[in-house]
Amino acid sequence: MNKSVLIALTLLAWSTLLPVTIANTVQGSTNHAIKMSSFNLSSQKWQNRILLVFAPSVDNHSYQQQMQLLREQTSGFTDRDLVLVQVLANESYANGQPIDESSAAKLRDRFGVDKDNFRVILVGKDGGVKRQDARPVKATAIFEQIDAMPMRQQEMRQQGRK
């Protein structure tokens, strides 16, 4: 299975399993714990772009609005090698999979985002911050910015040749 199909399947699962559902499973009454994995931003360098959504909780209005805006455009994530990372005060996810608190804390520290704040940050494949928003932002605006990047322009030219 190629990487694009795997990313598409992950995003499909993510859009079906909202963080509330995942959080309830993690903290639910079952005795089966979901394995938390670590997330290292540097391991994504030159492979993926990262869209970080920081929020106090899934109940945060800005967070809910942002997730709705992103759910409307999930197919665009795959095309742009874009990984969604949700960093919440009590739970965090990378493409819908739970990540450990240590990884989340490192992301908060690196980008200077307190547990009580909402922020959307786009990180390019080169590891640099390309965009920061303190309010929910439309996925199309993020995609347009990515599509204007030289590396993405090159990717689109190469995809056109296939």
Write the layout of secondary structure elements.
Blueprint: H1 3-16, H2 19-27, E1 49-55, H3 61-71, H4 75-79, E2 82-88, E3 92-94, E4 97-99, H5 101-111, E5 119-123, E6 129-133, H6 139-147, H7 150-161
Parallel strand pairs: 1-2
Antiparallel strand pairs: 1-5, 2-3, 3-4, 5-6
Task: Write a structural description.
This protein is α+β, with helices and mostly antiparallel strands. It has one domain (3-161): Glutaredoxin, CATH 3.40.30. 44% of the residues lie in helices and 19% in strands. The chain is built from 7 helices and 6 strands. A 6-stranded mixed beta sheet has the order 4-3-2-1-5-6, with helices on both faces. The longest helix is centred in the first third of the chain and has 14 residues, at 3-16. The radius of gyration is 15 Å and the shape is globular. It starts with a helix and ends with a helix. Keywords: Signal. It holds the Pfam family DUF4174. InterPro entries: DUF4174 (IPR025232). This is DUF4174 domain-containing protein.
- Average pLDDT rating: 82
| Major beta-sheet overview | 6 strands, mixed
> What is the string of helix and strand elements?
HHEHHEEEHEEHH
Number of discrete helical segments: 7
Mind telling me the CATH class?
Alpha Beta
Here the CATH topology equals Glutaredoxin
Question: How many structural domains?
Answer: 1
CATH architecture: 3-Layer(aba) Sandwich
Give the overall form: globular
- The helicity comes to 40-55%
Radius of gyration: 15 Å
Beta strand %:
15-25%
Protein name: DUF4174 domain-containing protein
InterPro entries: DUF4174
Organism: Dendronalium phyllosphericum CENA369
Domain DUF4174: 41-155
